[in-house]
Each structure stands twice: as structure tokens, then as C-alpha cells.
Amino acid sequence: MGAIGKIDEQFMNKIVIAIDGFSSTGKSTIAKLLAKKLNYIYVDTGAMYRAVTYFAIQEGLIGADFFHVDRLINCLDEISISFKFNKDLGFAEVYLNGKNIENAIRTLKVSKFVSPVAAISEVRHKLVQQQQLMGKDKGIVMDGRDIGTVVFPDAELKIFMTASAETRANRRFKELLERGHNLSYNDVLENVTTRDRIDSTREDSPLVKAHDAIEIDNSDLTIEAQLNTIIKLVEDRI
Ligand code: DC
């Protein structure tokens, strides 16, 4: 077979991998490693919802006791989200209107407001359109809450990650401490469980396991074990 044939074959074999699940189940860790191994694009869709939330906070549209939903909806055209690959980090960082906000969106403040923002249909519509465009050529690993159900219902491989709330809060707590945030484990646990509740019960695209998704409970699994399991599933499908 000539070189063109080989390229065609490679392109045709590329698949879409959707990784959904509850907050802090380690989706992005696995998705990043998987994308690296397969030479696929990785897209963290949670970062996109966090970017809109960050915008809303900066513009004074959301706070402890107020949320100007209509004003945020009217501002959506002013929000441009993009990703730029950072060679040193080995993954793409998220930008809001040209500004790198990769670290700024990982605070507990953004985590507190992100679920109400992600429940707005107009926000979801805008971001889902962009996500579908990013995956149109396949060869993509995308993680989120609605990837296998709404964004790519025909994805060749769908994974649904779970773990106990305590395991997840512990992981997120350690991660935030390492990033230099000063907070308590209970605050993190409360945030994780509240987000799960809002994300699973919202009207538009709630977090549910797709009927054809493969569930992985990683409470007691190493990252290596999870990756090996998923690689085998990928090999079956390619
Ligand atoms: O993956 P994450 O924890 O960074 O996501 C932040 C929030 O964004 C999450 O609580 C729910 C929302 N989200 C969503 O509604 N749909 C997605 N595809 C990804 C995230």
C-alpha cells in the first residue's frame, strides 16, 4: 500500500473516545494520558464551563447571593474559548478571549458557581457546538458530563468513571493543596457532592451514564490499571 493509502487507513481508524463521570473521578488524568499514548487531541470540556463561570465572576454576574442569568446569556457572544497546546505541560491550556486562564479556573470559587452556570441551556448550546466541531475529524479524547449522551452519542468508545465521594474529595483536596490553595477537606467534599447533585438533576443534558458506556469504578484502581483497561477497549474498537 502507498503512503496515501496508509494515511487514509490511519485517518479511518481514528475514533472518538468519550469519558464522562462525576466530579473528580480522575477523568482528565486518564484522558490526558490516553490522548498522549494514541496521539489524539484531548479536550477538557469542564474547563470550558469553568471559563464561562470565570467570565461571569469577573463581570459581576454571579456571586454568593445573586446570578444575573439573562445578562450572562446576552454576553455569550463576547466569550471566546480556545485551547493552546503547552509543550512543557504536555496538554492544551484553556484561554478566555486570548488570556490563559488554566490556573484561574481551578479555584474552589469557580467550582462553587460552575454547576449553576452549566445548567443554562444557552451556555450548553454554545459549548456543545464548539465541542462537536473540535471532534469532527475524530482522533479525540473528550471528558465531561454529557459527551457520550449529547456531544458524541455515536462515539466509538464511551467510558463512565465513578468512585466514592470521599475518595474523590480526597483526591481533589490533595490536588488543591498542592496548587497552594488554603481550604478544608469538608469544603471540598461539600463542593463535590453539591456539584454531583446539580449536574445529575439539571433539566438540560443531566449527567447520566450512556446506555452503551462502560463503567469503571476507580476507587481502588491505580492510574496504570485504568489506562491499561481503556487501551484494551480502544484496541478492540480500532
Ligand atoms: O470536569 P470539571 O469538574 O472541571 O467540570 C466542571 C463543571 O462543569 C461540572 O461540575 C459540570 C460542568 N460540566 C458540564 O456540565 N458538562 C460537561 N461536559 C463538562 C462539565
Brief digest:
The chain has helices at 3-13, 27-38, 45-58, 69-75, 108-118, 121-134, 147-151, 165-178, 185-201, 223-237; strands at residues 16-21, 41-44, 62-63, 66-67, 81-86, 91-96, 99-100, 140-144, 157-162, 214-217. By secondary structure, the protein is of the alpha/beta class.
Can you give keywords for this protein?
alpha/beta, 3-stranded antiparallel β-sheet, 10 helices, 10 strands, 18% strand, globular, binds 2'-deoxycytidine-5'-monophosphate
Overview of this protein structure:
With 238 residues, the protein is of the alpha/beta class. It has helices at 3-13, 27-38, 45-58, 69-75, 108-118, 121-134, 147-151, 165-178, 185-201, 223-237, and strands at residues 16-21, 41-44, 62-63, 66-67, 81-86, 91-96, 99-100, 140-144, 157-162, 214-217. Strand 6 and strand 7 form a beta hairpin. Helix 2 packs across helix 10 (223-237), helix 3 packs across helix 6 (121-134) and helix 8 packs across helix 9 (185-201). The chain is globular and about 50 Å long. It starts with a helix and ends with a helix. Bound molecules: 2'-deoxycytidine-5'-monophosphate (DC). 2'-deoxycytidine-5'-monophosphate binds next to helix 3, helix 5 and helix 9. Residues 23, 45-46, 49-50, 114-115, 118, 144-147, 195, 199 line the site of 2'-deoxycytidine-5'-monophosphate (DC).
